[in-house]
Amino acid sequence: MIYFEILLSVFLGLATFLITFLSFYLFIRKIWRRAYLKWDRMIDMLLRKAIFFHEGNNGQLTSIPITRRLKDNLNNRRFSNRLVKKIILAKRNVSGQYGDNLRQLYIQLGLDKKALRLLESRKWHLQAYAIQQIGTMGLKEHLARVYRYTNCKNNLIRMEAQIAVLNLIGFEGLRFLDIISYQITDWQQIRLLKELSTVPQTELTGIDKWLSSENASVTIFALKLARNYRRYELYENIVSCLDHNNPNVRKQAIATLTDIYVENTSEVLLARFERETYQNQIAIMNAIAVIGDVQNVSTLLSYLDTEKAQMKFAVARAIINGNKTGLECLVNDQRSKTYPLIDMIPQLKTEIR
Amino acid sequence: MRVLIAEDDELMLRIVEFRLKKDGHEVVLARDGNDALQKVEDYEPDLIISDVMMPYRSGLEIVAAVKEKHQTPIIILSGMGHEDMVLEAFRLGADDYLTKPFSPSELSVRIKRFGVVKR
Question: Which parts pass through the membrane (chain A) (predicted)?
């Protein structure tokens, strides 16, 4: 009986504690939510005012008017963080004078100085955040401080620094490719290419040097640059990448040659077919399907004997799409009457370009 | 002109709204894809400005759905400026494509280009 009473007391005590704790937690959360809502409204209004500052101002005001309440709130770390996040987001979305106004606001509020202090922090995530801010806000005067992080051993700091230099000086920022010793991940390459698509295009030099870089990821990225910006004058350099010892570089070179090719490119690719890895052989067939011609048909027909269905399909597709008489050649071949080609051909017919 | 803005980012929505109201347009706001399609039926806007990445339905789905029934011009306003995405938008029937970061003044000029009958 005594045990039961003790257990009941413990249970009731715990339940009371939990209910009190949860009520307190929900109450505090509600208060914060209200504060955040109020802050968001205040920040949105300020950003709207800042973005369109030059339109309503006939040169009378040199600085964006800021309310005292907002200035007071700036001392609050949470408010300040929220403001920085929103300014950065807005700056990424608007350009021209509208973007410059946001930059002015950022400097006017002294947020650039805070970012520079974060850059000196020992915590990597704060350093990365500071670099991101400097890049997005276009604080070119701090380029040298950001540039030295483009080959930083910390992956995230390095990634942010590489993006930031592109934001700051555009294509010229790609000079970090001359010196980096770390690999550029696929994800980072996508981010860099996306960032480059938003900066004004200028004469891009140095791709030839990067194509022969000792860092394989730099070579792959250079191949992507050559492809995206249609650098036909680099054709020979791209072909020489087909002999690179890294299969991923060779695969990217094959993909690039699908867009930058000359009359005999398909023959150049087929000449390397036998010594390539399986994945690269598939890549070659995909390339031939785009750039192939009638002269490749006899060679391609000899590859149809493969046991692998994926390869058989890729070869058949290359034969059909590579030239106008491809379908006829394939249908006339005895192997096309047997499985699996007999099933593949109807589908391939629908893909004829 | 009555313009529907479909955008899930509140700040962007307000920036575009502010610009369009300043230009004298009547503005209808939608914060996700479903909301946008509903408001196309309810308000019959003269022009639609839509983001691509939105909850429930993407901007491209909106273009396809709207162009099936209406001739309303659509401007895509997106951070995704990749060639494939732009071509896909035009293939589905988008009338213009503006990539972020964008200039609100440029958006104004592009809207004027459509010269839709004013209400």
Answer: 6-28
